[in-house]
Amino acid sequence: MIFQSLLAPCSILISLFASANGIPTTPTVNKRAELDAWIASQTSVSYFGILANLGSAGEKAYGASAGTLLASPSTHDPDYFFTWARDSGLVFKALVDEFIRTGNTELQIQINDYISAQAKLQTVSGPSGSLSDGAGLGEPKFNPNNTAYYGVWGRPQRDGPALRATVLIAYGRWLLENNYKSAAADIVWPIVRNDLEYTAQYWNQTGFDLWEETQGASFFTTAVQHRALVEGIKFAGSVGASCANCESQAPQIRCFLQHYWNGKHVVSNTNLTPDPGRTGKDANSILAAVHTFDPEAGCDDAGFQPCSPRMLANHKAVTDSFRAIYPINSGIAQGSAVAVGRYSEDVYFDGNPWYLTTLAAAEQLYSALYQFNKAGSLTITSTSLSFWQAISPSATEGTFPSSSSAFAALTSAMRTYADGYVAVVQKYTPESGSLAEQFNRNTVGGPLSASDLTWSYASFLTMAAARNGFVPASWGAKDATSLPSVCAATSATGTYSPATNTNWPDFPCTPAKLVRVTFNALAKTSVGQNVWVAGSIPELGSWDVGKGGVRLDASRYLEAMPLWFGSKTLEAGTAFEYKYVHWEADGRVIFEGGPNRKYTVPTSCRMGASVEGNWQ
Ligand code: NOJ
Ligand code: NOJ
């Protein structure tokens, strides 16, 4: 099971920090052990949170096609019941890395479904255009059944293709290493190829940023585009192809990347029309550092690596920009973690901290720690000095080998500081572990905006992996250092063709013992009524709804689609009969008419299944 593999390392840590009788040895250790325990439980909540939003069997994803990931199940205020290229790419990268680390075959099935869905999505024409000249690939979001979304939107967004290429390359590499060369070459590469061609052709044109608000150039977009082309070159070679446009454009993108640095911090958005006049301090840049982290790259400033003096200075500039503006941050001293939002001028839902940006602030630091330990030293420059002095007041410029006490003190201060960001998220996460998009900036706290944001859960998983020292594979940053002396506004016109092969080989897989079965009942009800499932097995109350029926949820109920949904984890192969029932306020139980419904929990490697039916 997915979550067990993640629980293991955490429980090992807990036992390390606890004495023989289980009582933690010192107060600091105690705090860390508590955080470890919370992270372990929040890790499994996050997995289930992601899978619940994934079509077609996800508990909260009724109506989404197989492999199509919703940004959130929220259908109003805000309506996120769509699939976004960016969110899906980032979330699936987390799942692919987890699959590679654990070999969890249930995850692999979802990954294959996602890739098959992407082959189809690339061919869907919409308001951004079509595949013929690549323009359609800049479309940021689609309906959950993979048709075009025609509403007014900030489009195009040019990070999506690059992020998708990055996930597919990570999985493609696994295929190659495990002797599935034709799946890598014939299924994965044709999709990646379109995305690389798009990136090489359009990187130098303006587009909407990751927050879908400003049109111009965005640091996050440029950084992930550079990464995709660099790893694209190597991946192309490994499947017997090539990417000449990647080779010609990658150095220019790296050149362009430099213009975002103003000497003190990254200016996340440039070339804006209209220019909203912001400071440019934006979690955009922290997310870029996290998603272009390369464990082989060292602390390269020009590559904006997490441990680079530039990005540490930037971390301070960005996080400090939220200290004064959120009441929940007031009174927190310099050098202690705070809640982090998108950017200080944000007004979306009144501009609150976000879970995923606060978690990214932690993740950047854990990734930096990995690098310092790997390098066996840590260097403080005039650029990063103020970052270090905030968390360790006696810090000075210099290079400190890992054998020095300064190294020990600095890295320990950094880890405590990083844990602080996770503790902020813990503090504002409800008991259930549900991660929305935002949490209230005011002292009342509480989740806000989209509920169960898939990306929030993924950012939790990648933070937890980084904290445990699990790092993603290198993407070749170390060798991609070519930097033209003068940047040129180049472009390479691509060629595009539909990826048609989605015939996956039969991968060996572990049969799922337990399957989460989701019941989707379409039942017109009146106010005050509810719908439950009662069935013949004890898990469904043995026909007694009070003894184990499943209460269904009406949060997506519409006249046109009177949906009641809910799920139950059952043993594979279990055969049972069931019915939908109303359990009235006065205690009466009213069974639907007709014959009993019959169902056998499928025996396969899939951990989720769903059934659908009209009230009869
Ligand atoms: C404005 C928000 O700031 C942006 O991030 C969001 O995507 C759109 N509205 C649509 O909800
Ligand atoms: C709004 C965010 O600003 C954007 O980054 C995201 O893609 C969408 N919501 C969907 O989660």
TrEMBL record:
One example GO MF annotation: glucan 1,4-alpha-glucosidase activity
UniProt xrefs under InterPro entries: 6-hairpin_glycosidase_sf (IPR008928), 6hp_glycosidase-like_sf (IPR012341), Carb-bd-like_fold (IPR013784), CBM20 (IPR002044), CBM20_glucoamylase (IPR034836), GH15-like (IPR011613), Glucoamylase (IPR000165), Glucoamylase_active_site (IPR046966)
Gene Ontology annotations for the cellular component aspect, listed alphabetically: fungal-type vacuole
Binding site for substrate: W153
Enzyme superclass (EC): hydrolase
Highest taxon listed in the record's lineage: Eukaryota
Record-annotated active site: D209, E212
Location of the CBM20 domain: 509-616
Signal peptide per UniProt: 1-22
Keywords: Carbohydrate metabolism, Glycoprotein, Glycosidase, Hydrolase, Polysaccharide degradation, Signal
Catalytic activity as recorded in UniProt: Hydrolysis of terminal (1->4)-linked alpha-D-glucose residues successively from non-reducing ends of the chains with release of beta-D-glucose
Biological process annotations from GO: polysaccharide catabolic process
Assigned EC number: 3.2.1.3
Similarity comment: Belongs to the glycosyl hydrolase 15 family.
Protein name: Glucoamylase
Gene source species: Massariosphaeria phaeospora
